[in-house]
Write a structure and sequence with these properties.
Layout (H helix, E strand, L loop, with lengths): L4 E5 L5 H11 L4 E4 L9 E6 L15 E4 L5 H4 L8 E4 L3 H19 L2 H10 L14 E5 L5 H11 L2 E5 L9 E4 L1 H11 L2 E4 L13 H6 L4 E5 L8 H10 L2 E6 L12 H4 L3 E3 L9 H16 L7 E2 L6
Parallel strand pairs: 1-2, 1-3, 3-4, 4-5, 6-7, 6-9, 7-8, 9-10, 10-11, 11-12
Antiparallel strand pairs: 5-13
Helix pairs in contact: 1-10, 3-5
The structure holds NADPH dihydro-nicotinamide-adenine-dinucleotide phosphate.
The site of NADPH dihydro-nicotinamide-adenine-dinucleotide phosphate has 29 residues, from loops.
């Protein structure tokens, strides 16, 4: 009779904090940290971030793999997945943190702060008359667990907000667009565009030179999801020409962003090192525990991931 154990693997997350948070929720859970896994047949659940190739096949009784993060692109593109249930992290702390990042980036543009940052460097009083927030059109691409609340909050603040997603959404104050036509309308009709799209085969490079050219001249772009949803060479060209006026980038095709990368020298780019939203084990453990309880009862986990769909 095998035991009900979880294996933890992550080169970046703290196993001690996770053990503490998860066993507080599930005192009966046997929490094991790779490589100290004991009998591989005991392992029913895996809580992992980028484990080595062949990791999952080692555990014959595995039922649930939970990705230690909201973005599952690195997980679903693997060719060594086993047929179990997949889920990912999401918690109110992570949602609040992402919303705060988006509100910051959008408000910085809406209130012309980069103009004043430059004026300060020149030692000049450069008055730009503020515009009503309702006159400022903002688009959020991706209306999922992070994009939905960010769009709702921007709308509640008074911005005019449109969202784009695969399926139609009903979010208070947010117009909903779908499909290729919808994307083109959204890009052409908004001056601040925020990406919260997951990276999938369909979304990779979805914002290329053609799409960036649809944006109004001087548009602002905020990317807090994955670098590769935008063609970086096309974005650099658009930022150099001024067609895209400003960008706030938290994520990049290659991270850390290499020294000498053109983004570093563009004055109209704000770079943050992939921290728009992070997971706090204490806040995320509740949903991880609930997923384990559900899988024990033969139900689907929370925040289930469909590897075929890619997110
Ligand atoms: P979700 O999976 O909950 O939502 C994804 C949204 O994108 C959904 O609205 C979905 O549409 C939409 N979507 C997916 N593919 C397409 C497509 N091809 N065309 C149109 N819409 C599409 O993801 P989250 O909101 O939780 O997270 C979004 C991303 O943010 C993550 O995948 C991750 O990469 C990134 N992230 C970044 C962090 C950071 O610190 N920078 C931290 C955490 C996450 P529908 O609703 O119709 O399915």
């Amino acid at each position: 009779m095998s035991r009900d154990a979880l294996v933890f693997y992550s080169p970046v997350d703290d196993p001690v904090a996770w053990r503490e948070a998860l066993t507080a929720e599930l005192p009966d859970l046997d929490f094991r940290v790779d490589p100290e896994v004991g009998d591989p047949a005991d392992i029913r659940y895996a809580l992992v971030w980028v484990p080595p190739k062949g990791f999952f096949a080692r555990f014959p009784n595995l039922q649930l793999v939970t990705n230690l993060g909201a973005g599952v692109d690195a997980l679903v593109r693997r060719d060594d997945l086993v047929p179990v249930k997949f889920s990912r992290l999401n918690d109110p702390g992570m949602v609040a943190m992402m919303t705060s990042y988006v509100v910051f980036a959008v408000t910085r543009y809406a209130r012309d702060i980069p103009v004043f940052e430059r004026a300060k460097r020149r030692g000049e009083w450069d008055y730009v008359h503020p515009r009503a927030l309702s006159d400022i059109k903002v688009a959020v691409l991706g209306l999922g667990e992070l994009g939905g609340p960010a769009a709702r909050t921007l709308a509640a603040m008074g911005f005019t907000v449109t969202g784009w997603s695969r399926s139609k959404k009903d979010i208070e104050g947010v117009s909903s667009e779908t499909g290729r036509d919808g994307l083109e309308r959204v890009l052409a009709g908004n001056e601040i565009i925020v990406s919260l799209l997951p990276l999938t085969p369909e979304s990779r490079g979805i914002l290329g030179a053609r799409e960036l050219a649809l944006m109004p001249k001087g548009a602002k772009f905020v990317n807090a999801s994955r670098g590769a949803v935008v063609d970086e060479a096309a974005l650099i060209a658009a930022l150099r020409s001024g067609h895209v006026g400003e960008a706030t980038l938290d994520v990049f095709e290659t991270e850390p962003l290499p020294p000498g990368h053109p983004f570093w020298t563009l004055d109209n780019v704000l770079i943050t090192p992939h921290l728009a939203s992070i997971t706090v084990p204490k806040l995320a453990a509740r949903d991880v525990a609930e997923s384990i309880r559900r899988v024990r009862q033969g139900l689907a986990p929370l925040h289930e991931v469909d590897p075929g769909r890619g997110y």
